[in-house]
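re: ur question from yesterday

yeah so i grabbed the chain u mentioned. its 610 aa long if i counted rite. heres the sequnce exactly as i have it in my notes:
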Amino acid sequence: MNPDMKRTFLPSIFLILAVAANAQWKPAGDRIKTVWAEKADPQNVLPEYPRPVMERSEWKNLNGLWDYAVTPAGKRQPESFDGQILVPFAIESSLSGVQKPLGSDNELWYKRTFILPASWKNKHIILHFGAVDWKAEVYINDIKAGSHTGGYTPFRFDITPFLKSGEQTLVVKVWDPADRSFQPRGKQVSQPANIVYTAVSGIWQTVWLEPVDERHIASLKILPDIDRKLLSIKVNTENTLPGDYVEVKISDNGRLLSTAKGVTAETLDIPVENAKLWSPDSPFLYDLEINLYSRGRLADRVKSYCAMRKISAVRDNEGIMRLQLNNKKLFHLGLLDQGWFPDGLYTAPSDEALAADILKAKELGYNMLRKHVKVEPARWYTHCDRIGMLVWQDMPSGDNNWGLQRTDYSRDYLDSEKEDTSTGPARENYMKEWKEIIDELYSYPCIVMWIPFNEGWGQFNTKEVAAQTKSYDPSRILNIASGGNFYHTGDVLDQHHYPEPEMFLYDANRVNVLGEYGGIGYAVEGHLWQADENFGYEALLKNPEETTARYIEYLNRLKSFNRFSGAVYTQITDVEGEVNGLITYDRKVVKVNEAKIREANREIIRLFSE
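ran it thru and got these structure tokens back, copy pasting raw so excuse formatting
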């Protein structure tokens, strides 16, 4: 075959293979789906750059159809595979094309090949995983390149030493015990019902490649200080030499405002005069460009962004501790956001879908979302930054110690750590994953509150965890235990009460919030995950009018509790058999009168804010 014919023939073969694969793949199962899943294209899966807070110009997306196999745990890599799976959707999801449980006795194998662009020659190649639940081992051309534990944080490997000419083979092995072990897993269970949902195993965020110089930028740590009119940036690098330095440029819509230079790993304090402050009503973001220079040449460049904003807790003129944003009292009115989809489970079927719930919450008049026992992909937080949505960020719960929440508050509720039954490995792993989560989310301005524990689920050493978390990131509010167990530590006392709002505890030395209430159930026919056994926190209502009236009744009840600084309604969408969302699980029906909800929400925020 002459060279010209070869150039024409090979693309045709690849096109035929792609079309054939596309024809074979389809979502599994017959449950409800979102409109985005109905338009899913296995050749173009989540094509957006996955990490906007640190973006490079060159990258390669590895999402798409991979070979997969399930084997008993501890076995060698299988010689043949079971079929194809659509990455990055968990094996239990419809959009994976498989929709099978994995189980703690099995391991999930992934395999695919790829070819690097010729222009990446002489570069170091970084292989990125957005998230894999829970333990992953990664092999490049039959060589183990590394491993990682933790289902909610990204990880990466420099695979350059293991590459060869031509086609590369990537294999990933995953073990995920779900609720059969101690690791953080949020609401994933092997037997879903009511408020707990289908387990999520394996790759569930984007897999991608980046070419970098041997000396390159590894991560950023960005902190605004509006009182001192400064932006602090620490640029962490790898393999840099003495004399290497970074340059940071801050711009406002293309207009350069300030430039600073410094040696690597040193924090740069950059003046920002007359700053445009970020808030839900005005989510202004500055553009950042970070350059790494080594031996006088540009070795790496990334783009990022930042916001000038401050979150604080201050005692007001009435002696009540209040949440403040940019030194002004702001009532946080939000929704519990579980982050589940009927077709992708943990993974949104598209970037548009990932942003849709945030946009709808904003349209309905909320200024906050509580990200409930889950961590989202990086793009979700960037959407919150750009849309203007405050985020209370939970740590995913684990260790199976549910049901240990204390309910007797007739005496001092801070007497002893009666919930402290977790094991040593569980504690050590918890703190490892929690610190990794904080590290990854530190630079997103939308995040204003950390919540390590929820309702006593796996709660341990509360005061010690509070001290470590506050020391690790003193710039944000610490809500140590949403819904209990309660101790005199952290910045917040957060109580839960269903269905109507209630204040049954008060702490004069901390901010008081209602971390969960509501849960008004309304099952919309044709948009249900299951036909019966649907759950709400009170008897299910029958139509949008009843649901809207009950919502406003409960919201107005908040006016009786003016010592609250925030409230979280359960919840933004239905999730599986839990039908207390404002929106159906498939996102096709808003179950309330939007105009009335928006007006009522905005009134409450105005009433309790400056």
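noticed a couple things. The CA atoms of residues 170 and 348 lie 24 Å apart. also The longest strand covers residues 106-115.
anyway ttyl
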